[in-house]
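Hi W.,

Here's what went into the run:
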Amino acid sequence: MPEMPEVETIRRDLAEKVAGRRIVSADVELPRLIKWPTAPEFQAMITGKLINRLGRRGKYLLFYLENNMVLVIHLRMTGRLYYSKQGQLTDKFTRLVFNLDNGDQLLYADTRTLGTLYLLPKNELWRISGLNTLGPEPLSEDFTLEYFRSKLAKRKAKIKALLLNQQFIGGLGNIYADESLFVAGIHPERTADSLAEDEICRLYHAINQVIAAGIEHGGTTFRDYRNARGSSGGHQHYLYVYGRANQPCPNCHSPIQRIEVGGRGTHFCPQCQIWKGRNT
DNA sequence: CTTCACGCCTGTCAGC
DNA sequence: TGCTGACAGGCGTGAA
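Here's what came out:
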């Protein structure tokens, strides 16, 4: 489900509600979602902890607790986090409940149960594979045009596949990758090293623009995503190509095509994203 | 080193 | 109605 704009929306929603609250107990209904430490240790260690603030890296949500402990949650495909006032919000796929000191709850729900949770001291976050190799994220200082250009050079992978590589850019997922390529006018199957300078520049700006719009609209609800209040996002009304196979391109009215690239459903306009470059 | 296929899970939907 | 297969917003692993 969630890519960087969705996780950021959840972070913003939750931050004001849980910062300063204490976790009085945790109900672990599906222990295997807890990847570190063991589920019983996790439950014991998190009990009584004060939540100081919320952070985010790519698609990872970080709850900074007292004593330098960090609760790390990755929602993967169908994870959802809700703030439930006095048990008013429910979800039949609830897998963990954090009971707070004001009688409210933080719910972790997950249909496909692919999500992951960790509880670690701040200086041991390197244990989380994926988080420890995460690349710079769009809109951040580290994500510069120079960095982007240097990472594309000599790469034979298809540009779409590379955009989904979290070691390269942290936070892009399938929706925003397709949208970015459309905005930049680049065919998803072009190899990374075939992009010309002006295309690299367009794609770089498109990524930042698309991610910023996603955040501004409170994320994209295509199927499972909900924000911390259980509501849908708004960016699905602004999608150009994602999920719009056979519908007219907003720019040229050609039918949007759906193909598979790197094992992922990929949407693009065959007119506006012309296949050009060295790898034809 | 890079790239790719597969597995993890459960649900929904289209087609028969 | 029931069945089957395709598909789903992610990512780690291991093989080539």
